[in-house]
Amino acid sequence: MRKTFIALMFAATLPAVAMAMPDAGQRHHGGKHAAPHMFEQLDLSKEQRRDMRKLMGEQMKSRHEITQRYLDKLPEGERQAMAKELADSKEKTHQDIRKLLNAEQQKQFDEFHSKMEAKRAERAEFLKWKAERDQKN
């Protein structure tokens, strides 16, 4: 259980790693990650890219520290507390990123964020359906 949880938390940090290196023209793994592409579309200045990397690095470090705090406390109540703290940390970083952007960039960022949230919700719904189907078989 612990190894599975650690692997899950490691996998959850991968998007932050992908977002931490948004240099223009640079594509990771054949350009399949959406985050670098999104940052290219935002036409960020050098200072914005630097600040964005810093924020994403801080968010990744914060996420790791939060995860470590709860690894040994896996009862349901602790899992819910961890999930809330991670969500709060993610939301704070999202708001900090928006503050770095001009109005047009904020609009693009918000549109991208909405699309990603919709994809995540769709994926979660699919996984729930698949788990229910597998239980019936």
Automatic annotation (TrEMBL):
Keyword flag Signal: yes
Domain of life: Bacteria
Signal peptide limits: 1-20
InterPro entries membership: Cpx_auxiliary_protein, LTXXQ
Keywords of the record: Periplasm, Signal
Major localization listed first in the record, in broad terms: periplasm
Subcellular location per the Swiss-Prot or TrEMBL entry: Periplasm
Assigned GO CC terms: outer membrane-bounded periplasmic space
A Pfam short name: LTXXQ
Similarity comment: Belongs to the CpxP/Spy family.
Name of the protein in its database record: LTXXQ domain protein
UniProt lineage: Bacteria, Pseudomonadati, Pseudomonadota, Gammaproteobacteria, Pseudomonadales
